[in-house]
Amino acid sequence: MCFPKLRAALISLVSVIGFFSGCGTPYGTMGGFSEFQLAPDIYRVSFSPYGYISWDLAYQAGLLRCAALTIRNGYRYFGVLAMENYGSVNSFSLPRNGYTYGTGNAHGFYNANTAYNPPPSFSILWPIPVLTIRLLRNPIPVVTLDAEVIRNRGMTEIR
Questions:
Q1: pLDDT tens digits, residue range 57-95?
Q2: Domain containing 34: what range?
Q3: Measured between alpha carbons, how far is 141 from 106 in angstroms, rounded to an integer?
Q4: What distance in Å separates the CA atoms of residue 9 and residue 140, rounded to the nearest whole number?
């Protein structure tokens, strides 16, 4: 009875989901970015992950964003002038635990001792790479990065 309508609705829903998932960038699901133009060909690009990811993955996502920015501005190459980490460190401690033991004697005295174990603490570094780049039309050997190569290879490595 309603099967053709249900089938059409399901196909429409899958098509819409597929369409909107194609609009994103591979680093868009991992975090956000910001860019600030310092000069006509110099940008500062930062990548802020939504959750914890490794420094290497955050740096790759930052490079991928730099490559997209380079191509969008009509350049092919870019050089990294500076690389900084504006990440934050979050530390937390688990609750400490204690153990109380005692001895009693026939005269009604009780001797108690309590031993405390210090709480373990952990630190997590949330990486936020900030790259200052210069856009270039011609390569400088051993200095520049090819934005086309990073864009083409970076998509498969980050996913």
A1: 888 889 999 999 999 999 999 999 999 888 777 776 666
A2: 27-93+121-159
A3: 88
A4: 54
Residue type at 144?
Answer: T
Tens digit of each residue's pLDDT (9 = 90 or more) over 21-47: 444 455 556 788 899 999 999 999 998
- CA distance readout (Å), 104 to 32, 99, 113: 63, 17, 12
Confirm whether 153 is domain-assigned.
Answer: yes
Under a CB-based contact definition with an 8 Å cutoff, are residues 33 and 22 in contact?
Answer: no
Residue 108 in domain: no
Residue 112 lies in a domain: no
Task: Confirm whether 80 is domain-assigned.
Answer: yes
pLDDT value of residue 159: 43
State if pTM tops 0.90.
no
With contact defined as beta carbons under 8 Å apart, do 57 and 20 qualify? no
In 3D space, the residue among 124, 120, 118, 119 whose CA is nearest the CA of residue 91 turns out to be 124
Task: Count how many domains the chain has.
Answer: 1
